[in-house]
Amino acid sequence: MRTLSGATARAAGAAAGALLTLTVVAAAPAQAAGYRYWSFWESDGGKPWAYATQGPATARPADGDAIGFRFAVSNGTGDTSVPSAAPDFAGICGGVEKKDGTKRVAVVVDFGGAADAPPGEAPPAKPVEVGCAQVREDATGAEALATVTKPLRYDSAAMLCGIAGYPARGCGEQVAENASESAPASSPPRAGEEGSGGGPSFGVLAGGAGVLALGGAAIWKARRRA
């Protein structure tokens, strides 16, 4: 049986080590960390709150729908706190008569609790605001929100950063586990994106694939030299 040369064996060992490293990284849970941000929720015809599949600037709720916004520290879509007020369209918009060319959308804004507040800030004294937005039939969720509470603050990527002046600064900062300070990092999950689950990210897998590719190339070159 043909044996590997020393160079080939070393290259094979490096590739095997890279594969083992990738396997360990892929199996390890992601480091727990949260993002402090405004999450966006939808309710179709009185159904329970559901995490929105798109942002408020593009979502177009129908007459009879409810939209909700909740400020909180969350690890992703799986554990994001829902608005504490129910999507009660009848209770919020029951007294508003529908007019031709318009739609009625119940809007719920939950400012969260003190534990969710950024350092040096506190949520408004009234923790939840509700209102019935009567807007044109093709209006977006953002437009409906603007009729109920202002001002709204967005970042350059059109991410909703503040509602009614809260918070006054920042936009989607990452919050380390068991830490009260915010750390600048990548953006939180946007509406329609997956949250930070326990599996490896695409970047980790792509990087690992690159390592393995380099290891395979080393073996091929070593065999040619042999």
Question: Could you explain the architecture of this structure?
Answer:
This protein has helices at 6-27, 89-93, 141-148, 202-225, and strands spanning 33-43, 50-51, 66-74, 102-110, 128-136, 152-154, 160-163, 173-176, 182-183. It has 226 residues and is α+β, with helices and mostly antiparallel strands. Strands 1, 2, 3, 4, 5, 8 and 9 form a seven-stranded mixed beta sheet that branches. Strands 6-7 form a two-stranded antiparallel ribbon. The two termini are 15 Å apart. 27% of the residues are buried. Mean pLDDT is 75; it is low at 11-30 and 193-226.
- Judged by helices, strands and strand pairing, the structural class is alpha+beta
Q: Which residue ranges are poorly predicted, with pLDDT under 50 across at least 5 consecutive positions?
A: 11-30, 193-226
Give the N-terminus to C-terminus distance in angstroms: 15 Å
Number of helices: 4
Radius of gyration: 25 Å
Helical proportion, percent range: 25-40%
Quick one: biggest sheet?
7 strands, mixed
Task: Describe the structure using short key phrases.
226 residues, alpha+beta, 7-stranded mixed beta sheet, two-stranded antiparallel sheet
